[in-house]
């Protein structure tokens, strides 16, 4: 009898310990579930996501508008010095007597452009230039008021002031490779007003060119050939 009681007592203790262990395990599992429920969920695609997650940065949208500005060339010291570089020329004609033999006179020409209107530039920028004229504006197609001061040696031996009008037309690569011009000018010779007409061809952005000027009513300056050197 006493042995059976001992066995039953031991069995009841073991059963009570097992039940207590089961209850403790269930309580821990429930606590873990509640803790996991309170923890923020992480992105399954990024296991290295920091906790707490970083706040997203709000970037300012870029300015997608655009503006343009008209070129405004202005006189500079190099430009001023280049204006003193003359273009050599040769005049051919008869002095005083129409029956006299033809004589040649060497001369030099300095040029200036007080005003130019270009139809070859972009329509969004100004088409007007004063004194300082970029080669593209001139040789891509333009109309200019021109001025020139010439001095001839030899049988002519005098200075001439020649205002005029000239138009430029592009031939190759918007005039950068080749352009041509047509113009007219007036001047005073022997106290008489004279009229002359000129044609020209220019290469290398208009840096070099050849001009032929014809003045039918002026004996000493009937024809003038000019090797033009000009930039801006």
Question: How would you describe this structure to a colleague?
Answer:
- With 232 residues, the chain is α+β, with helices and mostly antiparallel strands.
- It has a domain at 93-229.
- It is 21% helix and 38% strand.
- The chain has helices spanning 2-38, 77-82, 135-139, and strands at residues 87-93, 103-118, 128-129, 142-152, 158-172, 178-189, 192-203, 208-214, 223-229.
- Strand 7 (192-203) and strand 8 form a beta hairpin.
- It is rod-shaped and about 145 Å long.
Helix/strand layout:
Layout: H1 2-38, H2 77-82, E1 87-93, E2 103-118, E3 128-129, H3 135-139, E4 142-152, E5 158-172, E6 178-189, E7 192-203, E8 208-214, E9 223-229
Antiparallel strand pairs: 1-2, 1-9, 2-3, 2-4, 4-5, 5-6, 6-7, 7-8, 8-9
Question: Main traits of this protein?
Answer:
single chain; 232 residues; disordered N terminus; alpha+beta; rod-shaped; 8-stranded antiparallel barrel
Uncertain residue segments: 1-8
Assembly state (oligomeric)? single chain
**Percent in strands:** 35-45%
Q: Spell the H/E element sequence.
A: HHEEEHEEEEEE
Give, in spatial order, the strands making up the sheet with the most strands. Answer: 1-2-4-5-6-7-8-9
Alpha-carbon distance between the termini?
Answer: 131 Å
């Amino acid at each position: 009898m006493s042995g059976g009681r001992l066995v039953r007592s031991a069995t009841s203790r073991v059963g009570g310990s097992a039940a207590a262990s089961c209850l403790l395990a269930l309580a821990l599992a429930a606590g873990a579930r509640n803790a996991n429920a309170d923890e923020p969920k992480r992105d399954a695609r990024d296991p290295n996501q920091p906790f707490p997650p970083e706040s997203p940065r709000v970037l300012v949208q870029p300015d997608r508008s655009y503006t343009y500005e008209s070129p405004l060339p202005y006189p500079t010291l190099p430009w001023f010095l280049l204006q003193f570089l003359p273009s050599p020329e040769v005049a051919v004609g008869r002095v005083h007597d129409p029956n006299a033999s033809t004589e040649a006179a060497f001369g030099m020409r300095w040029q200036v452009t007080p005003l130019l209107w270009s139809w070859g530039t972009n329509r969004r920028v100004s088409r007007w230039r004063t004194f300082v004229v970029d080669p593209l504006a001139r040789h891509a197609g333009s109309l200019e008021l021109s001025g020139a001061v010439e001095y001839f040696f030899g049988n002519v031996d005098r200075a001439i002031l020649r205002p005029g009008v000239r138009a430029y037309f592009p031939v190759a690569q918007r005039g950068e490779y080749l352009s041509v011009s047509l113009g007219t000018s007036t001047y005073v010779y022997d106290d008489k007003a004279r009229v002359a007409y000129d044609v020209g061809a220019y290469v290398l952005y208009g840096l070099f060119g050849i001009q032929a000027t014809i003045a039918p009513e002026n004996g000493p300056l009937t024809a003038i050939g000019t090797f033009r050197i000009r930039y801006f």
